[in-house]
Amino acid sequence: MVGGEHERAVAGRSHLEFALVPDPSAYAERVGPFLLADELVHNLALGIIAHARPDGILALVEGGGSVQCAAVMVTPRNLVISRSPTVGALGVMARGLHGAGIALPGVVGPAAEALAFARAWRVTTLQPAHRTTAMQLYQADTALLPAQRAPGAVRPAREGDIDLVAGWITAFNLEALPDAAHDPAAARRMAEDHIGRGCLWLWEDTEPVAMTAVGGSTPHGARVYAVYTPPGHRRRGYASTLVAEVTRQLLASGKQWACLFTDLMNPTTNHIYQEIGYRPVVAFDDYRFGA
User: What is the value of pTM for the model shown?
Assistant: First the structure.
């Protein structure tokens, strides 16, 4: 992890302290109760902490003897910011990260906190900050099959699907982030990792026609993500039926809920997910820093 346990930035009279924690286990112990108190909203951060890498960022702001804000990052992705109950904590986080020499491509988190952090980062670094995606976090505690179930069946992706899945991951990323740099080798590593861990699922109708992944497992839930259907197979209900089936399996396995993120600019997917049992919980925003 970048930085050290004793790197701190004190915010004047507010007595808020910033810290970078290099040890994922120590970090999880310190921020775990805070994040788990809002487990659904913090699902993304909790998933990152569970698989923290040596080049990642694990930061927190404490005050009054308790955590007031947490932030995690998998380089080179955006910083993931938590909710914060304390005015000023996000500013302390921004100044602390900048003071530690950490460059951020952007930030993602609950809309209010993401905006507050983006503003603080802009003031601190003089970098422009612009919102790139307005998202909605959805939760389901029941799974409903679409009115018109697509033909075919769900199955786990296998080793022989690696090339196909890697290509779909690249295509998914190009659609979601057309202006970002994309690495086919990284997409293949992701395909190998997800298939090896058994967390990637395909819908097959004589051939694979859609995919989704499951991750971010927490004590009570898990996140469905990377939902993708190639253009030639769209508008046939494959993805919605796949997500419904995977959600049903998650709930049957003992999870109390499943969650997923949608782009609010895509009314079709927002409508479809509500039809299969998902309900909106909180708005999330994604900001990019720099020109």
Answer: 0.90
